[in-house]
Amino acid sequence: MDNTADVIIIGGGIIGSATGHYLAKKGLKVYLFEKDYLTAGSTGRCICGIRQQFSTELSIKVAMESLKKFAFMHEELEHDVEFHQGGYLFLSHSEEKTETYKKLIVIQQKMGLDVSYIGVPEIEKLVPGISTVDLLGGAYCPSDAQANPFLVVHGYVKTIRKNGHVFDHTEIKAINTDHGRVTSVTTDRNVIYYAPIIVNAAGPSVSDVALMVNLDIPVYPERHEAMITEQIERFFDMMIVDYRPDGCYFNQKWGKGSIIGCYTPIPVKPGKDTGTSFAFAKEMGRRMARLIPKLKNIKIIRQWSGSYSMTPDGNPIVDCTDIEGFWIVGGMCGHGFMLGPEIGWIAAEHIIDQSCPYDMSTFALNRDFSSKEVMK
Ligand SMILES: Cc1cc2nc3c(=O)[nH]c(=O)nc-3n(C[C@H](O)[C@H](O)[C@H](O)COP(=O)(O)OP(=O)(O)OC[C@H]3O[C@@H](n4cnc5c(N)ncnc54)[C@H](O)[C@@H]3O)c2cc1C
Prior knowledge:
The termini are far apart. The chain contains nine helices and 20 strands. By secondary structure, the chain is of the alpha+beta class. The protein is globular, with a radius of gyration of 21 Å. The relative contact order is 0.20. Strands 4, 5, 6, 13, 14, 15, 16, 17 and 18 form a nine-stranded mixed sheet that branches. A six-stranded mixed sheet has the order 8-2-1-12-20-19. Bound molecules: flavin-adenine dinucleotide. Flavin-adenine dinucleotide is lined by residues 10-16, 33-36, 40-43, 45-49, 171-172, 201-205, 209, 224, 226, 262, 306-308, 330, 332, 334-338.
């Protein structure tokens, strides 16, 4: 194996592996570097939800296209990725939320999404035993889904390996440039690998990697804890999202019956620390049982944490930079798994053709970050 590739990718999560998969499919020789094991970052720590309910046309389109790619993934990657369309249900406990969801549903339906606002009786049928205290209704999209991130990433890297190489347990320590363009990377073993294109897909470390070429980008890591319960008989099919300040989100794993979930703490916790807390386990149990009282005695069997890579407006960054050949594909916030397949495809198209498959200004590096993704 020589030290030169067409493209070097830094990061072995869904974003790096999906981008590498689509580049490799076009015949490029890709070298992907992962400092730990594949999926060791946020990707292996997510709760596996795939939804299409977003608030901007671009995010909705990317999410819908991504879902299509998930749906055919078992054929494309030639193995099952545990994809299951059980839907997403965003609960509303206030008039304000109901109004927001109804407004967004108009945009989402216009784009062809099978989403609708449903009332409490229908919710009770979909989630037997759900508490109806303060419940007004919810935004329900039955085609939203779940899949297994480990199986997805391992499928994507199979394609990269056909013509390139995956270097796990290999950290990139420096990105080398010459006259304003990237030339190579230096690993923690002090080996240099060369490529005219380097993609920064380092997830919560995307800003640290950008700093290797003195680029300051607006992405910061935010800690999130998560948990999974013992297996119980399946009684609901969708991701339930309770966006109240003390709400939570969880779904029941397809085929297995465990409930997997998390919540966003207030105030949010910045950083990349992967420790866990008893406070989270206790509070998550309380929040789930408030929504579905029969979950009161269910046992949490594992907990962990990971980081979102947050941008100020809640949308990703998919763009080239002023340093020739250096690309940023990051800032996925809490949506990188669900958006990953389409983001990887877009990034690959963008890199190969130097043109966007569709208007990507919402994901540009130098955009105005003052707007906000409402469904974040
Ligand atoms: C608790 C939790 C729940 C979530 N739930 C969902 C969900 O239900 N649905 C959803 O779509 N998203 C969810 N997310 C968000 C999702 O996990 C992320 O958006 C997504 O995984 C980001 O993928 P990535 O490839 O950009 O980053 P990562 O998966 O973090 O991959 C980046 C990789 O880069 C590597 N790396 C960093 N620096 C270097 C270096 N210098 N050299 C080599 N390698 C390096 C890291 O080790 C890491 O493996 C959740 C996240 C968390 C934490």
